[in-house]
Write a structure and sequence with these properties.
Blueprint: H1 8-38, H2 41-49, H3 74-91, H4 97-105, H5 107-117, H6 124-127, H7 130-139, H8 141-155, H9 169-193, H10 196-203, H11 205-219, H12 232-253, H13 272-295, H14 302-318, H15 321-347
Length: 348
């Protein structure tokens, strides 16, 4: 089937991205943060984390109900206290089903931007994908993801297929190693470490991934044929593991539609933990939903677009969004390899 042209339809694709994701980006904060106000989570965080004068001495200028100041700047400590409190509520005394679901299914949300950022010729916001997650840690992934996809589509020369380069084997090694070192290990420490420090550390995992990436670039030896060998075989293993983990995470959902419980009015007697769980669910609805919608821009023609839409709807219901995105990422990289091979055949 004929590929989508790169002129007028490319402009249409970008215009649609602006309209669709811009609208979602404008609406998402209202639903995500609106749930926090409706359930009184914001009031709880205000009570727990708004600093009050400490009469004990001149050196300690402020204190919280339970959180020990970490930074030394009142406003920064208040924000950090709120973030840590939110996660502690769904981590203690044991991780909530929604938190475990996020832990087991989140890998594609991090891997897809990392892989797209590794493509040759990618521009600023594309090759700095960790900016997405750095902002997401502050504003939530649901509120941030729409703007990432706008940046990805507008700055990558998108024309239905995007840059036509599969990432190299060495780049794939950097992605895999930095994701494990900077992303997975801190997340595991937060889930099972039962520590405020571990929770704080995970908030900076985008920075940790970036640092790990620089270290991996310096440590992983270069090979003469690096530029000629694609990273698909390694990424296939990585995405397969992400797929298996996401399927495992589905059991914590118990029911594929359970997340729609957030559409029901909150009880007046809801606990802070339950309120945080609702807040997290709204975040996941927009986060996963935007990524699944964004993956439709990977289509190179009308047939692939129909398949991707159907795959997201049917696969999302039966397998869950994490598993769907893992296989979509695998398919995406495979198409890049095929396009690279096609270009090589034309040049010979």
């Amino acid at each position: 089937m004929r590929s989508i042209p790169t002129d007028s339809r490319a402009l249409l694709y970008k215009t649609l991205a602006l309209v669709v994701f811009g609208t979602i980006g404008a609406l998402a904060p209202g639903y995500i943060y609106g749930s926090a106000h409706e359930t009184d989570l914001m009031r709880y965080l205000h009570k727990a984390c708004v600093a009050t004068p400490d009469p004990a001495g001149e050196e300690v200028l402020y204190r919280f109900d339970w959180f020990t100041r970490k930074i030394g700047v009142e406003e920064a400590d208040q924000r950090l206290c709120a973030v840590v409190t939110v996660f502690q509520l769904v981590l203690l005394p044991s991780p909530s089903p929604t938190m475990m679901y996020f832990f087991l299914t989140h890998a594609p949300l991090v891997l897809l931007p990392m892989v797209e950022g590794m493509r040759r010729g990618a521009r600023f916001l594309v090759w700095a994908p960790m900016l997405l997650w750095f902002l997401a840690q502050v504003l939530t992934i649901g509120a941030t993801a729409p703007w990432y996809w706008i940046a990805l589509i507008l700055t990558s020369g998108w024309s239905g297929s995007g840059p036509k380069q599969a990432i190299t084997r060495r780049d794939a090694q950097v992605v895999a190693a930095s994701f494990v070192l900077g992303g997975i290990i801190p997340f595991v420490a937060m889930i099972y470490g039962d520590s405020v420090l571990a929770t704080i550390l995970w908030q900076f995992f985008p920075v940790l991934i970036s640092i790990a990436g620089y270290i991996c670039v310096a440590v992983i030896p270069k090979q003469k044929d690096d530029s000629k060998r694609n990273g698909y075989p390694l990424l296939k293993k990585v995405y397969t593991l992400a797929f298996i983990a996401a399927l495992t995470g589905q059991k914590y959902a118990r029911n594929p539609l359970q997340i729609l419980d957030i559409l029901q009015p909150a009880s007046l007697t809801i606990s802070a933990r339950e309120a945080t769980d609702i807040f997290l669910k709204w975040d996941l609805v927009f986060g996963y939903g935007v990524f699944m919608l964004g993956s439709c821009w990977f289509a190179r023609n009308a047939k692939e677009l129909v398949i991707l839409v159907g795959w997201n709807v049917v696969g999302g219901f039966f397998l869950g969004p994490g598993a769907v995105l893992a296989l979509t990422g695998l398919w995406r990289e495979r198409t890049m390899v095929e396009m690279d091979d096609g270009e090589k055949e034309k040049s010979t």
